Amino acid sequence: MATTCYGCGATLRIDGPVGRRSTCPECDADLHTCMCCRHHDEAAAHQCREPHADHVVEKDASNACDLFQLGDGASRRRTGRSEAARNALGALFGEAPRATEDPRDALEALFRKK
Fold first, then answer.
1. Of 1, 69, 78, 84, which residue is 20 to 30 A from 42 by alpha carbon distance?
2. What global pTM score does this model have?
3. Going by C-beta distance under 8 Å and a sequence separation of 6 or more, which residues neighbour residue 20?
4. Which domain of life is it from (predicted)?
5. How many H helices and E strands in the chain?
6. How far apart are CA 88 and CA 6, in angstroms?
7. Which of 1-15, 57-71, 83-97 is the least confident region?
């Protein structure tokens, strides 16, 4: 089965079951995690669509959930999601996409001499 690593986004070819100690060969991130499970859903109770699953606190750490099924971890990567959501909402109301600011520019503007 082909999937994508939650940690680095690398495409992985997994043959057979994913063990509790399985890791990504690229970034060494754990693969048997909630973030890589097909049942993971941030909008669901305990962030899991499986009602019989045990509550897991650390979603990106290896766990012993018996209901784990490998899913696409890259779709759950958090980088840029909030900015994309804001731009989509703005587009709904006819606003232009917000320009991404470099934090360094904001810091320099704060201490710039007038």
1. 1
2. 0.63
3. 32, 62, 63, 64
4. Bacteria
5. 2, 2
6. 23
7. 83-97
